[in-house]
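== Folding task for one protein ==

=== Format: two labelled lines per protein ===

==== Paired sequence and structure tokens ====
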Amino acid sequence: MELKFPYTYKHIHAFKKAWHIPPRWIDNNQSPPENIIEAVRLASKAVESHPERHIPFSNIPLMMHQKWDTTQLLGTKEMILSYIETWLTDAISPPPGSSEMAYFLWDNEGVLTLMEEYENDLVSDFVEVFSPVEKVDIFRIAVCKWFGGIYGDVDTKALKHPSQWIHSADISEWADGMTGKSYGLNDTTLANISKSSGQPLPVNAIWGIECDTDPNTNAHWRMAYTYPVQLTNWAFASASNHPILHYFLDCLKEKAAEARDRVLKHPGTSLSELHYDPVTRTGPVAVTEATNWWLEKHDDLRWNALTGLKDGGKTKLVGDVLILPITGFSPTDEKYSRMGEKSWDDPDARLAHKAMGSWHHTNIIVEYGKFCRSFFGLCKDWQKMW
């Protein structure tokens, strides 16, 4: 490991504390943090009043969060280690024109401590109601709610440094072809932001599309997606305290209450025996619904206007939320694309996801449902993950 993945070995496995904060971010008289909570607090404070420590055109700090069960990485798949190494390399030795980042690899203990200290009213539900994969879904939202930053699953590979994720064209004005309503920044506003460092920065959240299909067809659910335009949660970025993140976490209370009510109505059943689809309850469907709620309420967005099928995959700013086209977080390394996603080397590709999720479990009902949807166009509402 030390030879193949030197940064991963030095800053995680051997360090046993699993974080890196750029030395220039830390005052000489600052005591070193003792745990990951102290470390993320220190980094969060260090980015204040430093625009260069944020993604350009945004208030999103260059703080990378990832999650793995343990920081002892011997025995971990080399592919996973190689992807962690790419993120650490971007953090420690960024390419020319890019900025240093802080990096945090959260283990189970660190995640539970975060929830206990910052989301105490959710802790009992977090521990008792939600499955391991749902806990990771919840964690990623909670850590960005409180500290901001970038989240990426450990099976994501950095293709472009986050300090290169937003350019002026990405936040320029665009219009919904159906309603005529305009979003993004007009030329005057864009010019003022580019010229003056004192202008408010427009972006507070970044999401990427994982499903982009014609809403007038059943293509999305035949491919096991809930919405024709659906966001991914394997990667996103946000400033702290974004309303979308608050709403997502607030909705968990109702979901947990529903699960507890099911147990009460079925004596002899435990919470661990209930089966919920994590994709729907805490995963991509849940973040899509939270983002849709906010943009519809706050910016009067027609959700399906976000499609990139008719404009070649344009990045779209709506309010303070930047929606990347499917290529942004879901580029393809295959010869053919299903939904207009372009290749890993396309300028729009920020990261790639290899979908190595160890949380997937084979289940005959789920597998038959896939076959049924794909070949017969039936079984629309069958559970998609177990």
